[in-house]
Inverse folding.
């Protein structure tokens, strides 16, 4: 029923199942927030359902923002943003926002607040509603870590000193806390911040900031593996939801656009002259089966011929 409503031929599912059953090595399954909670629960069980001799199933979440897994690890019980915005002007009279809302989110709801503090790098639609804007430093001006979508913890190294009065986000929060009578004891040390993360977040237990300096030996957090369990309830939820689909569904056959540029000019990178040179010297290659260095070589005399297909 599900394949018919989605416009997918049942033979295609059989072919996919056969390919999985015959696969060897690592099979990576990527998924994002477009899946319902029930569907994500099923995906979490796929390592048990699809694993076989010589085959390992790896799950790769695709959050809204890259390298944001650490934020989810630290605050797994965060409330839904849309729900919070609904309550501005009611139960929520003030807010403190690090960063900015997306254009698709209800930025206008911030106008109902009595007070809004925002820490940001640039003026945005969010800072337009702010009573106070605290200048945050960019990634190039701070030391610290981020956790990528594979769960690897990677270092961020300060390249330049913060401009004007800007500070790292965690420094701003730490200074505000001290003014309110709570001393975190970080003393401007990113290592001290990571030590507290390792002490309080179970999946980071045992990790040490100095161990992250050797990027040839990446360090991965120890996320809890979902135990094997029955899925009858989730499958029934998915079945009922599928029944509501139209019977004239069509399979999506579009290939997502794949850009060839390794460097795209953005709000921050556009302010760096060298990025304009990289973008200008990065034409579309004849084939994508080439070294990334080929794509960023500006001097034509240093270019190599693309590898044969």
């Amino acid at each position: 029923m599900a394949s018919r409503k989605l416009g997918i031929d049942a033979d295609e599912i059989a072919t996919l199942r056969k390919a999985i059953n015959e696969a060897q090595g690592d099979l990576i399954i990527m998924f994002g927030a477009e899946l319902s909670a029930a569907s994500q629960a099923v995906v979490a069980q796929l390592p048990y359902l699809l694993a076989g001799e010589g085959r390992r199933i790896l799950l790769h979440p695709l959050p809204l923002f890259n390298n944001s897994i650490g934020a989810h690890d630290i605050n797994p019980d965060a409330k839904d943003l849309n729900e919070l915005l609904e309550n501005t002007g009611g139960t929520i009279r003030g807010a403190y926002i690090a960063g900015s809302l997306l254009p698709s989110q209800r930025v206008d709801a911030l106008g109902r607040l009595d007070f809004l503090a925002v820490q940001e790098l640039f003026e945005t639609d969010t800072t337009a509603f702010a009573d106070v804007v605290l200048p945050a430093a960019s990634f190039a001006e701070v030391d610290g870590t981020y956790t990528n979508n594979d769960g690897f913890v990677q270092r961020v190294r300060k390249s330049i000193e913060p401009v004007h009065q800007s500070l790292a986000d965690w420094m701003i929060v730490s200074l505000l806390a001290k003014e309110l009578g709570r001393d975190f004891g970080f003393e401007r040390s990113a290592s001290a911040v990571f030590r507290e993360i390792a002490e309080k977040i179970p999946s980071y237990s045992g990790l040490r900031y100095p161990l992250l300096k050797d990027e040839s030996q990446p360090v991965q957090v120890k996320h809890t593996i979902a135990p094997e369990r029955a899925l009858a309830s989730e499958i029934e939820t998915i079945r009922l939801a599928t029944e509501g689909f139209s019977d004239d569904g069509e399979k999506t056959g579009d290939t997502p656009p794949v850009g060839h540029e390794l460097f795209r000019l953005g709000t921050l990178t556009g302010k760096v002259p060298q990025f304009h040179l990289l973008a200008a010297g990065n034409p579309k290659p004849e084939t994508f089966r080439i070294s990334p260095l080929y794509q960023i070589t500006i001097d034509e005399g240093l270019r190599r011929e693309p590898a044969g297909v």
Strands lie at 25-32, 55-62, 94-98, 115-120, 132-135, 144-147, 152-156, 219-220.
